[in-house]
Write a structure and sequence with these properties.
Helices cover 25% and strands 19% of the residues. It has 3 helices and 9 strands. A 3-stranded antiparallel β-sheet has the order 1-9-8, with no helix packed on it. The protein has a 3-stranded antiparallel β-sheet with strand order 2-3-4. The chain has a 3-stranded antiparallel β-sheet with strand order 5-6-7, with no helix packed on it. A hairpin with a 4-residue loop joins strand 6 and strand 7.
Length: 206
């Protein structure tokens, strides 16, 4: 009788041990498997970023983060677009000869759509973040200011196409990232337009 009881206990303990062990393996495996998935931070650093500009107003700026850098979308009004060619004599690289933009953005507006300007908000002098100062004649810059971006750290100036002015510390225009429009409301930073320079990768800054 006692032997039967011992056998029953032994069987129960064996089954219990197997079950508890299996549960332990599953609990341990869940965080391990999860850890193999890319983190949100990793995705943000390497993947594209979508920006909804459907509610942007003329003259406004939308901020986002792409590859841990500030990515901006500016809605340039017609008056700002008309001013751009007038800035050319004052600029260091008015025709965007330096490779600070993909080929499809090497134009008078440095953009795919003239009214929408996509740019990385990092000063090309020492990596500061410029201020957006779109109003011409803004007293923080000066009465002859045509509107654009001002880096107050060391005084670098860029127009509303991100082109750097002469006689300032910054050597290059603001970088324009790879980007394409998914529709009339969303722009994707980090991808080229489908069928247009689709194999272009550009310098690492993009």
């Amino acid at each position: 009788m006692s032997e039967e009881i011992d056998q029953s206990k032994r069987h129960f303990l064996t089954v219990a041990t197997v079950v508890v062990g299996a549960i332990g393996v599953c609990v341990t495996a869940v965080p391990f498997v999860t850890s193999m998935n890319p983190s949100a931070k990793a995705l943000a650093l390497g993947g594209p970023t979508d920006i909804d500009f459907s509610k942007i107003e003329p003259g406004a700026l939308i901020k986002a983060i792409w590859r841990n850098k500030p990515a901006w979308v500016v809605q340039r009004p017609q008056a700002a677009l008309a001013q751009l060619p007038k800035n050319d004599p004052l600029l260091r690289d008015p025709n965007s000869e330096e490779p600070q933009q993909p080929p499809y953005a090497k134009n008078a507006w440095r953009s795919i759509k003239p009214e929408l300007f996509v740019v990385i908000g990092i000063c090309t002098h020492l990596g500061c973040t410029p201020l957006y100062v779109p109003q011409p004649g803004d007293p923080s810059v000066g009465p002859t200011w045509p509107g654009g971006f001002h880096c107050p750290c060391h005084g670098s100036l860029y127009d509303l196409a991100g082109r750097v002015f002469k006689n300032v510390p910054a050597p290059l225009n603001l970088p324009v990232p790879r980007h394409r429009y998914l529709n009339d409301k969303v722009v994707r930073i980090g991808e080229n337009p489908v069928g247009s320079h689709s194999t272009y990768t550009g310098p690492l800054v993009w």
